[in-house]
Design brief:
This protein is mainly alpha-helical. Helices cover about 55% and strands about 5% of the residues. It has four helices and two strands, in the order ααααββ.
Length: about 100
């Protein structure tokens, strides 16, 4: 079955049907979609996207395992950086522990 973007199936009606058709079209044509840029993943991770940019990024992440993996790696790196920035405290005079 070929589904073009913005074209409803013959028996479909309303927004849900056209949104579903768009999702089907994106799934069928995913290999042609460009991956998200690193700065877009960074801005998404920091909650700096809104409106159409946020919607498109979230839709892409639903379809693209590669970009989801890159986002996971970025967020793991941020977690490690934040943990490394935590002050250390003495626990028994010889060793340090994260607070």
């Amino acid at each position: 079955m070929h589904v073009s973007p913005g074209v409803c199936l013959p028996c479909s009606r309303g927004y849900f049907a056209s949104a579903l058709n768009m999702l089907i079209w994106q799934l069928m044509n995913h290999s042609r979609l460009a991956h998200l840029r690193a700065d877009s993943l960074e801005r998404y991770s920091f909650g700096q996207l809104s409106g159409l940019s946020l919607k498109r990024t979230e839709e892409h992440l639903l379809l693209c395992a590669n970009c989801r993996a890159r986002l996971d790696e970025f967020e793991l790196m941020l977690t490690a950086i934040r943990a490394a920035q935590q002050p250390l405290s003495m626990t028994n005079g010889n060793s340090y522990a994260f607070v």
